[in-house]
C-alpha cells in the first residue's frame, strides 16, 4: 500500500481535485485541526525560466496575502502558506462546489433570479475587496464557486492588485482574461472597481445566456467584440438585462456602480418592483471610442465601427438607401438592385436582406461567429451551424444590436433605419475580414423583420433585435476555415 503523502507534517493529501499547467489542487486533511482543506500546489512545467517561475510564486503568495486581508463569507479563506522541498503550497478553505463556468457547461443557462442571488454574493465579496483597496482583476465564471444550495464564493485573488503593490508582470502587459476585460482596461487604464464590475456583468451575461457575450475565435476578434459589439441578451429577464447593460456601459464614469447594482439585484431576488437606476453624470471626453486596441503583440486590424448612430426612427420601407453598385472584388459599396428575388434564388452580395418571421431568411440560428453549410437563398432557413474548421459555405462574421440600450419593447425602427445602420457596420467589419483573405469575398447584411423584432420577449421562440453580417467566397466555393481573427 502506497504511503500517504503529508505536507509540512500536517496536511495529508487525500485526492486530486484539479490539475492545470501550473499546478495541482488537492483535497487534504489538516491533521492538526482535524478539518478538510484544499491544498493548492504550485508545480510549473520543467524548463520554465526562473523569472517566470518567480512571478507565478509571487502571484500565489499575493493570493494568500490578499485573501488574508478580507473577511467576507463569499471570499475563500486562506489558512496557511507552506514552502517545502522547493515547492509552494496554499492551504485554503475547501469549497465542495463546482465553478459557475462548469455549471453552465454541464447544465445550461441559469435562471435570472438564481443568477441575481449568486451575483449579489460576488458583489459583496468585491465590495469588501474594494473597501480594502484591492481590485480583483480576473472576475469570470471559473472564479466563482457555487454550492448546490446557491452559496457562492469568489476565488483566485492571485492577480489582484492593491494600490501599494507593484504589478506582477515584468513586461508591462495586461493581466487577466480578455473576454472579461473592460474597454477602459484595454485602453491602458489601471484596473479599478469599475473594471471589476464590468467583468461581473460579463459573467452574469455568460451564465444566463449560456455563452460568453464577447468570446470569439481569436484574441483579436474577442477584443474587437469587447470594444464594439453590445451584448446580445435573449434569455435574461428584463430586470436582470437592465443590470447587465448597466454594468456593461462602455464609459466607466457612467457605468452602474455597486450600490445601484445591489439594489436592483435585491429587488430581483425578492420579487419586488424594479428599482429605477439614476444615471451618473456624464463627463466630457471619457467615452471610450477607439479604432484599434493593442494587447501585447496583438493589434486589431482595420478601423472599428465609428459608433452607434443615434436613435432616429424612420418610416418602414421595403428597402434601404441605395448607393452605387460594387466596383471591385472586395468592394464595400452596396448594390442598388431592389428587384424581388424568386424563391430559391441565391441572395446577392452587398444587398440588404431580412431574416426571421416573414423574412427573406425565415429562420436564423447562428450566433457569435458560427458557420453554416448552405448558402443564403431566398425563402430558405439557416437552421444551424457546422464547425468552421470543416468545409462550409457562409460565416457570420459580425453582429450588433443597434438599439441595445433602449427598452426591448421599443417600436420597430423600420427596415430603412436598420439597413442604413447595417451597411455602415458590416462594411467596416468586412474591411478587416477581407484584408485577411486571398480570395474574392461576397458579403451582405441581414436585418430583422418587424415580426421578428416584436417577438423579442416571446417565451417559447424569442425574436432577435440584432443585425447580422455574413460572408462567403464570391465564386461560391467552400470555405475551409474561419475568416474572423
From TrEMBL:
Low complexity: bias regions: 315-328
PROSITE patterns (alphabetical): PROTEIN_KINASE_ATP, PROTEIN_KINASE_DOM, PROTEIN_KINASE_ST
Residues bound to ATP: 40
Positions of the UniProt region annotated as Disordered: 315-344
Keyword Transport: no
CDD domains: STKc_PknB_like
Composition skew (Polar residues), residue ranges: 329-339
The EC number(s) this enzyme carries: 2.7.11.1
InterPro entries found in the cross-reference section: Kinase-like_dom_sf, Prot_kinase_dom, Protein_kinase_ATP_BS, Ser/Thr_kinase_AS
Domain Protein kinase: 11-265
GO MF, one annotated term: protein serine/threonine kinase activity
Residue intervals passing through the bilayer: 290-311
Protein known as: non-specific serine/threonine protein kinase
Species this protein is from: Lentzea miocenica
Amino acid at each position: 500500500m502506497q504511503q500517504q503523502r503529508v505536507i509540512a507534517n500536517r496536511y495529508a493529501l487525500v485526492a486530486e481535485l484539479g490539475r492545470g499547467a501550473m499546478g495541482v489542487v488537492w483535497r487534504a486533511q489538516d491533521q492538526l485541526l482535524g478539518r478538510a482543506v484544499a491544498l493548492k500546489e504550485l508545480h510549473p512545467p520543467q524548463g520554465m525560466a526562473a523569472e517566470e517561475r518567480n512571478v507565478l510564486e509571487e502571484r500565489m503568495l499575493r493570493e494568500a496575502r490578499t485573501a488574508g486581508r478580507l473577511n467576507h463569507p463569499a471570499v475563500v479563506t486562506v489558512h496557511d502558506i507552506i514552502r517545502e522541498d522547493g515547492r509552494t503550497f496554499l492551504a485554503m478553505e475547501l469549497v465542495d462546489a463546482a465553478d459557475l463556468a462548469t455549471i453552465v457547461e454541464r447544465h445550461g443557462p441559469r435562471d435570472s433570479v438564481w443568477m441575481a442571488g449568486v451575483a449579489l454574493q460576488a458583489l459583496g465579496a468585491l465590495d469588501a475587496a474594494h473597501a480594502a483597496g484591492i481590485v480583483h482583476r480576473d472576475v469570470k465564471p471559473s472564479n466563482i464557486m457555487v454550492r448546490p444550495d446557491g452559496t457562492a464564493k469568489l476565488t483566485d485573488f492571485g492577480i489582484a492588485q492593491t494600490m501599494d503593490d507593484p504589478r506582477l508582470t515584468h513586461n508591462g502587459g495586461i493581466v487577466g482574461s480578455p473576454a472579461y476585460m473592460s474597454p477602459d482596461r484595454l485602453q491602458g487604464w489601471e484596473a479599478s472597481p469599475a473594471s471589476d464590475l464590468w467583468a461581473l456583468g460579463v459573467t452574469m451575461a455568460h451564465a444566463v445566456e449560456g455563452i460568453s457575450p464577447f468570446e470569439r475565435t481569436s484574441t483579436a476578434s474577442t477584443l474587437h467584440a469587447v470594444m464594439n459589439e453590445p451584448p446580445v441578451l435573449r434569455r435574461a429577464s428584463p430586470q436582470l438585462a437592465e443590470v447587465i447593460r448597466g454594468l456593461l456601459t462602455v464609459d466607466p464614469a457612467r457605468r452602474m456602480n455597486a450600490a445601484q447594482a445591489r439594489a436592483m439585484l435585491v429587488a430581483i431576488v425578492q420579487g419586488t418592483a424594479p428599482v429605477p437606476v439614476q444615471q451618473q453624470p456624464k463627463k466630457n471626453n471619457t467615452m471610450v471610442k477607439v479604432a484599434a486596441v493593442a494587447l501585447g503583440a496583438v493589434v486589431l486590424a482595420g478601423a472599428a465601427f465609428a459608433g452607434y448612430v443615434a436613435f432616429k426612427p424612420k418610416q418602414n420601407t421595403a428597402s434601404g438607401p441605395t448607393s452605387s453598385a460594387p466596383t471591385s472584388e472586395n468592394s464595400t459599396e452596396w448594390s442598388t438592385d431592389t428587384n424581388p428575388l424568386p424563391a430559391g434564388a441565391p441572395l446577392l452580395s452587398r444587398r440588404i436582406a431580412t431574416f426571421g418571421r416573414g423574412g427573406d431568411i425565415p429562420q436564423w440560428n447562428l450566433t457569435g461567429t458560427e458557420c453554416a453549410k448552405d448558402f443564403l437563398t431566398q425563402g430558405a432557413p439557416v437552421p444551424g451551424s457546422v464547425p468552421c474548421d470543416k468545409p462550409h459555405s457562409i460565416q457570420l462574421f459580425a453582429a450588433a444590436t443597434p438599439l441595445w440600450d433602449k427598452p426591448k419593447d421599443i417600436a420597430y425602427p423600420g427596415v430603412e433605419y436598420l439597413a442604413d445602420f447595417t451597411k455602415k457596420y458590416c462594411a467596416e467589419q468586412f474591411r478587416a475580414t477581407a484584408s485577411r483573405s486571398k480570395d474574392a469575398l461576397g458579403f451582405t447584411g441581414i436585418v430583422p423583420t418587424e415580426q421578428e423584432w416584436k417577438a423579442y420577449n416571446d417565451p417559447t421562440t424569442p425574436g432577435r433585435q440584432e443585425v447580422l453580417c455574413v460572408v462567403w467566397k464570391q465564386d461560391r466555393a467552400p470555405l475551409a476555415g474561419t475568416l474572423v481573427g
